[in-house]
Amino acid sequence: MDGRKDYRYGSEDDEQERGDDVAQCLQDTFFHTCKSITMISQQRIFFDFLQFCIGSVAEIPASVKDADWKVLYDIAKKQAVVGVLFHGIKRLPKELAPDEDLLMTWMGMAQRIRQQNARLFMDSAKVCKNFQQEGFRCCILKGQGNALLYPDPYMRTPGDIDIYLSGGRKRIMQYVNKVCPNQVMRYHHVDFPVMKTAIEVHFTPSYMFFPLHNRRMQKWFGKVMDLQCSNRVTLPDGYGEITVPTTSFNVIYILSHLYRHVFTEGIGLRQLLDYYFVLVKWHTDLTDSMDLNTSKSLPQITQMNTDLDALRHEIKWLGLWKFARAVMFVLREVFGLSEDKMIAPMDEKEGKFLLDEIMRGGNFGQYDTRLGSKEDEGKLHRYIRMNLRNLRFVRHYPTEALSEPLFRTWFAVWKKTHGIR
To answer: Which of 23, 216, 257, 376 lies 20 to 30 Å (CA to CA) from residue 244?
Structure first.
C-alpha cells in the first residue's frame, strides 16, 4: 500500500454505522421472535383456560399459573368471548385470578354482556310474537337460541336478531316495505329497523356462492324449514317463548353459515363456540335416544352409524365436507371437542390454516388489516379488498372462492334490472 486511504469500502465511521445497523437488526429480530413465541405460549394457555370455562375439562389447567391475563383479555375481546372467560374466572382461586384492576374491568364487561342478553331475550320473544300475529311462521336463527346451549345463557356475546319468515321473498318484502320503506334487500335477508335491537328478516337462512351447491342448499331448506318454525323453546327468567331450529338442522345450517362468512369478512371463535355447543347437544340427543342406561345393542350402534352416515352424505352433497374437516380440527384444538362427537375426520393442514385466519381476524374478521383499514371505505375499495382477500382461499376452497365475486356481481345486476334498492 502507498499510504493512501482506500475509500472503496467507506470510512471507518461508515463501517461502524453499518455494524450498528446490523446489530440493531439482529436485536429487533430477536425481540420480535421472543414476542412471537410468548404470544404462541399465551394463546395455548388461552385455549386451555377456555376449555375449562366451557366445561370441556373439569380441572383448572396447570398452564393457567403462567397466564398473562392482559394478553388473555385482549384475545378474549378480539374473539368476542369476554363473558365466556369470565364464567371461568369466577371459579378460580384468588392467587390464580387476574389483578384487581383488570378483574373489575372484566367484571364490568361481563355485566354488560348479561344486560345485552336480557334485552335480546326479551326482544326475540316480542319479535317472534309480532310476526306470528301478522300471519308469518318464523324461527330465530342462531342468536338467543344458541345462547340456551351455553352453561350460562347470559355469558355469550349477543349480536342482532336474525329471524326466518316463511312465505317467500315477495310477500316478506311487501310487508317490510309497508312497515319500513326503502330498506336495502340482500340475497337472503332485509333489515327491519323497528326497535333499538337490529333485526334481519330472512327469506332463506343462508346461501352459498357456487351455483350448484346453492341450488342444493335452497332445495334442502325448502324441505326442512317448516319443522324449524314449530320448535318452541322457553327462555330463561320468564322472558317468554321463541321458535328456534332443531339441533339436527343447526349442525348443517351453522356450518354453512360459518363457511359463507369465511369468504365475506371472516369468522371468530365466538361463531365456532356456537358450533361446538351445537355438536355437543347433537351428540347428546343422539346417544340419549339410544337409551344409554343399558349397554348399547348392535341395532342401536347401527342406528347411530346410520344417522351419522346420513348427515355426512348431506354435508358432502352441499359441498361442505372439506370445510367440515378443517372445523373439526379447530374445535378439538381450541375447545377440546372429543373425536366421538365429531361429524367428520379432522384435516390438520386445513384446520391450521383456518385457525390462523380466525386468530388473525378476530370476530367477523374485524381485526384483519392485512389489506388496509376498513374504516370509511367506499364500495369500490371494499369490492377490491374482498376480491384480493378471497385469493387466499382459492387453493383451499376453489369453487366457493372463485364464485364469490361472480355471485356478488350477478346479484347487483339482478337487483338493478328489477329496480330493487
So the answer is: 216
- Per-residue pLDDT of 127-179, as tens digits, reads 999 999 999 999 999 999 999 999 999 999 999 999 999 999 999 999 999 99
* DSSP category for residue 99: P
CA distance 389 to 183: 28
What angle do the packed helices 12-53 and 82-89 form, to 10 degrees?
Answer: 70
The set of residues, in sequence order, having a beta carbon less than 8 Å from that of 156 and lying 6+ positions away, is: 83, 84, 113, 117, 146, 147, 150, 270, 273, 274
Separation of alpha carbons 200 and 80, rounded Å: 20
What are the residue ranges of helices labelled H in 8-99?
12-53, 69-78, 82-89
pTM: 0.88
Other Cβ atoms within 10 Å of 254 Cβ, number? 24
User: CA of 81: how far to CAs of 37, 75, 236, in Å?
Assistant: 23, 8, 21
The DSSP H or E segment spanning 199 is strand 199-202
Residue 215, φ and ψ in degrees, nearest 5:
-60, -40
For 312, the 3-state DSSP assignment is helix
Pair 167, 173: CB distance under 8 Å? no
Residues 6+ apart with CB under 8 A from 392: 357
The helix or strand, by DSSP H or E, that contains position 188, with its residue range, turns out to be none
280: DSSP letter:
H
Hey, which residues does 243 pair with through a beta bridge? 232
Phi, psi of 241 (to 5 degrees): -130, 150
What pLDDT band is residue 366 in, cutting at 50, 70 and 90? confident
Q: 274: helix, coil or strand?
A: helix
Chain Cα centroid distance, residue 184: 24
- The amino acid that residue 381 corresponds to is H
In eight-state DSSP terms, residue 185 is B
